Amino acid sequence: MNQRTIPITLFLAAALAVAGCQKKNSNGGAAGTANKSAPVKIDKSKPVKIAYVEWSSSVASANVVKDVLETKLGYKVKLIPVSAAAMWQAVAVGDADGLLSAWLPTTHAAYYKRFHEQVDDLGPNLTGTKIGLVVPDYVTIDSISQLPANKAKFDGKIIGIDPGAGIMDKTEKALKAYDLKGFNLVSGSGATMGAALGDAIQNHKWMVVTGWTPHWMFAQWKLKFLKDPKKVYGGAEYIDTIVRKGLKKDHPEAYKILDNFHWTPKQMGQVMLMNQKPNADPYKDAVKWINQHPELVQSWTQ
Questions:
Q1: d(Cα 235, Cα 129) in Å, to the nearest integer?
Q2: Final residue of a domain: which of 170, 194, 225?
Q3: Side-chain half-sphere CA neighbours of 282 within 13 A
Q4: Fewest beta carbons within 10 Å, which of 95, 131, 165, 291?
Q5: Distance between CA 204 and CA 23 in Å, rounded?
């Protein structure tokens, strides 16, 4: 080897060594880690918005999930009370991040048909629900078909809830299907319906209301569903969690909680009954219930 070859070779070796060091330092480690992407930082400064209807079941689930998202993940959560139709609309257009009160396949069938392509359905958070017409157990009829012959005993009224609710639409159809001429479907709210039923029971009066399970009133009083031979109200139902498109990407941790959230009618009923006590605070009741069920709540976070 001649004398000129040695310096050139050393120069090339030194240059390669410097380049290697620069590559290592610029990536904060060895070249083998250069392709690792930095963890995505989730912005939790903006609240997760949950739309709900002021039904006892919806209030219970919304407040339970609110506390889990805030205490377990550090999110801020805003609960937005709206009508059933507005609840679905808000999630579909992205004004809300999710809802926990999609009664399917019957009660909210019209909303699902209209919005299902604009939202993500995470599946049931509660199964074994039912809707229909409900009476105190001392009422001696057992079927909706028997209502016309007993119109006077019911004062010609069916006590309902908010007019946008799916059960109200089903009851309008029941009026026609069972030829309930002379019956008036009285709209109001879940609270006014419960209060009217309580007054009727206290005075041992006949009353028929739009009802569903789970609901605190079944724990409060002895009630029964009127049989629905024409299946206007459908069969067993379930409650789904619905979220907006893109939530999984924007808030993967919140999405995971919403996807895992699931409880039983009995568990929901416990929270609803707590909320019926004088001066009850639904959020504080949710916190209390959560503290009593750590294993279940932990399963939602895994």
A1: 9
A2: 225
A3: 17
A4: 291
A5: 85
Listed as ranges, residues in the chain with pLDDT below 70 are 1-41
Question: Per-residue pLDDT tens for 204-257?
Answer: 999 999 999 999 999 889 999 999 999 999 988 999 999 999 999 999 999 999
Per the domain annotation, does 109 fall within a domain?
yes
The count of C-alpha atoms lying within 13 angstroms of the C-alpha of 63, restricted to the half-sphere facing its C-beta, is 24
Return the sign of the alpha-carbon dihedral for residues 153, 229, 209, 178. negative
Residues 242, 100 within the same domain = yes
Distance (Å, whole) CA 95 – CA 76: 16
Q: Answer whether residue 249 is part of any domain.
A: yes
CATH number at residue 201: 3.40.190.100
Tokens 């229909």 sit at which residue?
A: 132
Q: What is the pTM of this model?
A: 0.78
Q: How would you classify the pairing of strands 208-213 and 157-159?
A: parallel
Asked if residue 201 and residue 72 are part of one domain, the reply reads no
Q: Where are the alpha helices (DSSP H) in the chain?
A: 5-26, 56-73, 84-93, 109-115, 166-177, 190-202, 216-220, 247-250, 252-260, 265-275, 282-292, 294-301
CA dist., res. 230 & res. 152, Å (int): 23
Phi, psi of 251 (to 5 degrees): -140, 70
DSSP lists the bridge partners of residue 157 as 184
Domain-terminating residue out of 225, 246, 272: 225
Q: Output phi, psi for 265, to 5 deg.
A: -55, -35
Specify the CATH number for the domain of residue 270. 3.40.190.10
Please tell me the distance from the alpha carbon of residue 205 to that of residue 201, in angstroms, as a whole number: 6
Integer Cα distance of 166 and 160 in angstroms: 11
Query: Mapping DSSP to helix (H, G, I), strand (E, B) and coil, where does residue 40 land?
Result: coil
73 - beta bridge partners? none
